[in-house]
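Student: I would love a firmer grasp of how sequence relates to backbone shape in proteins. I am handing you a single protein, as its sequence and its fold in token form. I am told such tokens are a discrete way to write the fold. I hope you can help me see how the letters and the tokens relate. Take your time, and here it is.
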Amino acid sequence: MLRVGLTGGIACGKSHVLRRLGEHGIATLDLDRVAHEVLAPGGPAYDEVVAAFGRGVLAEGGAIERKALAALVFADSGARFRLNAIVHPKVRAEAARTAARLADQGQPLLVTDAALLVESGVHLRFDRLVVVHCSREEQLRRIQARDGLDPAQAAARLEAQMPVVEKRRFAHYEVGTGGSFRETDRASDDLTHELRRLVSSPLRQADQLLERGTACLLAAQASGPHRLAPTRLLEDITAAGGLEMERVAGLLDSSPGRPWYRRSPSPGPEQGLEAVVVPTVLWVLARRGADVDLTASVVASVARLFCATSSEVSAACLFAVALSEAALGDDWTPSPDRLGSWLELAARWGGARPSQRMIDIVQAGISAPAPGTPGKLLLSMARPQPAAPGDVRSGVERLLRLGAGGR
């Protein structure tokens, strides 16, 4: 099943786009509706929320008054963090159960709508991300009209979320809703056609991925940026059931208390980024196959925590795509056309041209691998040597089982 996340800023029109996709027969899931269910009396989050915020958030009859709760958490970032920590895991668990049921029924595609996919760092659990957007002025107008808020209250709601212009950097696809409903519907229809084309396009799968992954991890440095060992990141991905940016940021213990996307890399040069790229690429290969667009986008998010410049992020994306392609066979060598498309992809997700050093490493491929860790990793992925069973191999086996279960 292709899992697509649909997100955007408050009052940007996500619900309208989701309904339009549903009208075309695409399976959809609204996480705001799921949140209503987990917060309802008897729901899995009800007692914890009442204990955390008091009975003042209850309406007559005992139901949680969402407007009162929203007013409380939008005015206090600490309260918002506590609420999210209670509600988000339960919403994700229910969403995972729904996705598994639909996959068992043979659904090839599921679009999930949630406002905070990027902010919460769970956007990497989706194969594609769609960002619905309009201008800030239009958002403010819609919030005031919809919720009866004054301009200051509406602005406070916007400030509590990541700006839409920043969120669009994480999008595989975008739908603008600043025009007429007919224009939005046309854009949604175009998105429907593209998603169906993607579902019908088979991806190449790497054979011997256990051997390739094991050899690649053994060839990686013992630790990457901030001394984060690649096997530690691999274990965290498996334990969490996927990549989650807040968890990855927590492994670094940098800028605690700040959202993952507001954390800055430590000053000074970083070494060993390839050691972090390897488990990330293995996760995508296990889950989807050689999906270079997904690979580049996932690594771009992870690299933001380690790379001080856009060029370094792009270099990480380029290396990740090359590593993914190397997993497809031992005769891998990038043609000029293919290398050019990879450079465009890396620049699109990283925001700049990759460093010449990384371009040279990738261009050399495995026919004349560059010295050092990156060249060794490309060669190890393309031509794995038999490795004795051990903790690394067991870790890769667990990751591959997890990835295969999410297809």
User: Anything to note?
Assistant: Strands lie at 2-8, 27-30, 109-113, 128-133, 173-176. The radius of gyration is 22 Å.
